[in-house]
Amino acid sequence: MNIRLRQCLYGGMMLGGLLAAVGTAQHLEAVIPVGNMPEDVLWNPASNKVYTANHADGTVTIIDGATNLVRATVAVAGDPDRLCWNSVGNKVYCISHDPDWLSVIDGAGDTLLRRVRMRGCAMRTVYNELMNKLYVVCFDDCMVRVYDGGNEALVAEVSFGDLNSPYTLLWHPGSNRVFCTTSCGPQTDTVFVVDCVSDEIVERRPAGSYPYAMCRAPTNGLVYVGTRNGILVLSADGGAVLDTIPAYAADMCFVPCPNKIYAVTHWTVVIDCDRNVVIESLPFRGNEVLCDTVHRKVYSASVNVSRLYIYDGQADSLLTTIQLPFSSDPSLAWNSTNSRVYIPGEGVVYVIRDTSTAVAEPVADAGRSTRRLATICRGRLWLEGDGPASLLNPTGRQVMRLEPGDNDLRGLRAGVYFVVYKGSYYATKVILQDSSIRGTQ
Hints:
By secondary structure, the protein is mostly beta strands. It folds into 2 domains: 3-354, Methylamine Dehydrogenase, Chain H; 361-439, Immunoglobulin-like (Sandwich). It contains no helices and 43 strands. The strands form 11 sheets. Strands 35, 38, 39, 41, 42 and 43 form a 6-stranded antiparallel beta sheet that branches. The protein has a 4-stranded antiparallel beta sheet with strand order 3-34-33-32, with no helix packed on it. It is globular, with a radius of gyration of 21 Å. Residues 1-23, 360-372 and 435-441 have low confidence and may be disordered.
């Protein structure tokens, strides 16, 4: 087996012994020096830049996603921990919780726009691109605070009561609601559902013990909540618990076509979202997981054994393992433009490159968010975004108008089509063959 060895001289120390099998097409491409103790990593698809929140030195490092070169280092407030991207304004938010600050970075100009004083031990964030709002977990105050994405002014406070400490956030674009898990006790932990128009609590779902991980399946619109009592399956509006899957998840990610969820903890389980059952159990642990939806690869990082596991998301089998010395619970980010995955380590960011032939061939203009995706499975297309799109044949003729949500393609002839959003050159190539999709983003 061919082995590629990459080394990086940083701070007088040689980081060696980082091995990856290149025969599987996933290999360690680069080790990029960044700030001290990078806690989080984020990819900005509009500018094709990668950001690391360097906890110990109060900075954010900005990396060019195409060249792997450091573009800038921006001083931010406090000890930065979490990053979040504002797709409407092309801004990057950096949360510091000791002391509490929100730092706002210009995604185009790589400069600090402003710092906003916060309170309550700000921990996690989620961005609502339909309403242009930022939702921030304030752990000590038992609430979520809501900020205007235009000027970062505080617009609402959603309180869960003195005993409900919020933890994880998830925004559902279909219902335009934010789901928030809270920790109170093994019998009283809850998932709160917030309406994003009124910013008021509209649903409360008892969740059992430790409801931390959450994931949304765009093909069926359901929300999956990992607890120690099983993975709860909630409706898109949070109004009903539809099922409980006997598995536990520290983190989860969705794998489109064939419509699965990978859940990681002391082992890895694969869930069929059509039937909401476990279809595979793999003996590898993980702390964080993400999916490369173009190549159908799943990346799972485990701080316990300092390894990155890479799975075939279609065959549900292990492709390769890469040994990486993580400094804390690993964070993962995926660059769909350059087929790269980023993982922060001890003062560095590891870059994993996938050189295999892509299943999808997305084409995007640089000014638009590549988060506006078309997920296709079994002859049905799930369109994300806040506006319609057109399905074109290779001659450029519109054969169908697509609406956000589910679209049935099974009546179309086999062939090549393109999904194009109104007012944009953003396109996704799809191949329809025998009423099923062979290639898609």
